[in-house]
Dibenzothiophene monooxygenase (Microbacterium marinilacus), 398 residues
Amino acid sequence: MTGLGQESADAEFERLAARYRPIFDEIAVGEAQRERDGVAPHEQLRWLIGAGFAGLRIPRELGGEQARLSTVLRLIAELAVADVNLAHVWRNHFSFVEDRLYDRRDPRSDEWLARLGRGEIVGGGWSEPGAAGTAGTISTRIARDGDDWVLDGVKYYSTGSVYARWSTVLALDPDGTEVVVLVDTGSPGVRIGDDWDGFGQRLTGSGSVAYEGVRVPSDRVFAYATRYSYQRQFYQSTLNALLVGVGRAIERDGAAALRARVRSHRNATVPTPTDDPELLEVLGSVSAAVYAAQTAFERSLVLTDALIERAGAADAGDDAGLGHASVQAVAQTQLVATTAVLDAATRVFDALGASGTSHRLGLDRHWRNARTLASHNPRVYVARLLGDALVNGRDLTA
C-alpha cells in the first residue's frame, strides 16, 4: 500500500497537518497541568479518533487517508509538541496497522484495517518483566482449548494499553513458534495495571498487563513471520519523532519563559532579560539543536518511504542496500536527536534563573520525558553499532 501519487510528501503532510493542528493546539491547553496532576488524556484521545487520526495509514477504499508512513510520523512529532504522552500512545496502534498493510493477502487484514481506521485503538505487550538472559526472552504462551487458544503471561512496557480496545501480545505457540495474539482488553483474565513507575512518560500506560487464561479466537492469532519487514525503522523512528516533539516544546516553552522574565541577575550585562545577549545565545543554541534533530529525522523518513515503496515493487527483491541505508539513517538520527534534545532540555534553564524551576511551569517534564524516551535504546549501543558498520563494514540490519 502506498500513499504516493501526484501529491508530494510535503504537500500531503501540510494538507493533513492543517487539519490536525487546531486539534493539537487544543490538546496542548492544560497539558502541563495534566502532567502535574496525573490526569490521563482520554478525552483528548477521543478528539483525535473523531478526527480520523487512527485511519491515517488505512487505504482509501477502506475509509482511510492512505497517507505515507513519513506523514504519520511527522504528525506524531507535531502531536508530541502538544502532548508527548498522548503521541506515544499511538506507537503500537500504527505498528499493527503496518502488519495488516504488509500482509493484505491474509483475508483478515482488510476487516481489521477498516476497524482500526474507525478508531479501535491497539496497545501492545511485547517485553516481559524480570526475564532472565537477554531482552526478548518470551515466557508468554498460548495453548489450544477446543477451537480457541488460551493465553497466559505477563507483559511490561505495554504502552497505550490503558487506552486501547485491543492489545497485541507476543507469545509462543506449543511448537515454540512466535505468534502475535490480538487480545480484547475487556476479556476475562486481562488485568491492566497502570503501574508504570518511570519518572517520564507517566501518562502513556506503559506498565504491566497480565493475561491469565484468556480465551482468544483462532482468527486473532497471527504468525510473527508475516509482520512488516521495516519494523526496526518504524519503532525507532517513532521514538525519534517523540524526541523531536519534546525538543520543539522545549524551544517553545523556553522562549515563552524568557519573554516572561522581568528580573535580571546581578551579574548580567543588561537590565532586561530579553535583551541579554548571553540569555539569547542560550535560546539560539537550543533552537539550533532542535533544528538539527528535526532535520535529521525528516531526512531519515525519506529513505523509509522509499523502502516501503520498493517493498511493493515486483522486482524489489529484499532491497538489502536500501534497507541498510534506512536503518543507518534512523540510527544516526537517534544519536543526533537524543544528544540534541537532552542537551536542550538542560541548557534552557541557563536562560531562566531560579524561577525557571517553578513547579507551575513544569519545564522539568521535558527533560524527564526525553530522558525516558532515550533510555529505550541506550546511546552507547547505537553509537557502537554505527561505528562497527563504519569501520568493519558490519551490516546494521543483521
